[in-house]
Amino acid sequence: LSFCTFSKLSLSILLVIAHLTAGMVDLTRHEKEKHFLTATGEKRLFPSLHDPHSRELSVVVPAYNEELRLPVMMDEAMEYLENRQKQNPSFTYEVIVVDDGSKDKTTEVALRYTRKYSADKVRVLTLVKNRGKGGAVRMGTLSSRGKVILMADADGATKFSDIEKVEGGLNDLNPKPENMAISCGSRAHLEKDSVAQRSLFRTFLMYGFHFLVWFFCVKGIKDTQCGFKLFTREAALKTFSSLHVERWAFDVELLYIAQCFKIPIAEVAVNWTEIEGSKLIPFWSWLQMGRDLVFIRLRYITGAWKLQSSHKTD
């Protein structure tokens, strides 16, 4: 076999594998995932992203085994949000903590905030099984009431008050008339410092990942992985309705979908601190994300995955 023939054969095999192993968009919910608990322990149905907004801001916090780190993030977020509401009483918000099938007391810890602030301000969505960060963010987003929706990591790595920076980025996009826009927090400005602190091998993996993101999926965004992104309600519905990847590379597919729909995206520098206890196992997670990146593009090319209309969940 010549090299050219071998390359074509390998690509054909890869395309077939990508097509045959493609999972579909899973928007179904277990019966237990349709409800949240009030401060007095009563069950209430979550609303739908298809409903009109009734809050200015929703904050979706995916959390897997986060009983230790969640309180630090929640204390900072709630202090900021409560102060903002005091200064501007017309500002309304909610925080949705999504327990992604944790084995620890993440749900119990989160429910303390429901009891302290009320279920109107803090709701806990407990998933029956672990879906992955992307699946948790989507389930929380589809249950939110906000005019704009912020996804924020449970580790509190990004200073919460930096929401004002991503809000500024969103407003600068001037998302009228369809109100489609996404503003991404970015750590790209910190890259030089992080390279100096990383091993040569991890730096190689990082640049390799950036190349794959650029080559296969998303152009023009330097940091796709920062867990601090703000969506208009309309952009969230459009993108999350088509999302297939539920684990670490979900951010990339989300932004790929946004670019396919020509939704404007801003990238805004935010403060970021590395927090102990990261769920990423560096080498294997990079390999998994690299594989997902290649397969994201191939599955859209082969038609195994298609961009969805914003259909309702079961």
UniProtKB/TrEMBL annotation:
Pfam families: Glycos_transf_2
Family label: Belongs to the glycosyltransferase 2 family.
Catalytic activity annotation: a di-trans,poly-cis-dolichyl phosphate + UDP-alpha-D-glucose = a di-trans,poly-cis-dolichyl beta-D-glucosyl phosphate + UDP
Subcellular location: Endoplasmic reticulum membrane
Record InterPro entries: DPG_synthase (IPR035518), Glyco_trans_2-like (IPR001173), Nucleotide-diphossugar_trans (IPR029044)
Residue stretches spanning the membrane: none
Domain of life where this protein originates: Eukaryota
Descriptive protein name: Dolichyl-phosphate beta-glucosyltransferase
Mode of membrane association: Single-pass membrane protein
Gene: ALG5
Keyword Transferase: yes
Gene Ontology terms, MF aspect: dolichyl-phosphate beta-glucosyltransferase activity
GO CC aspect terms: endoplasmic reticulum membrane
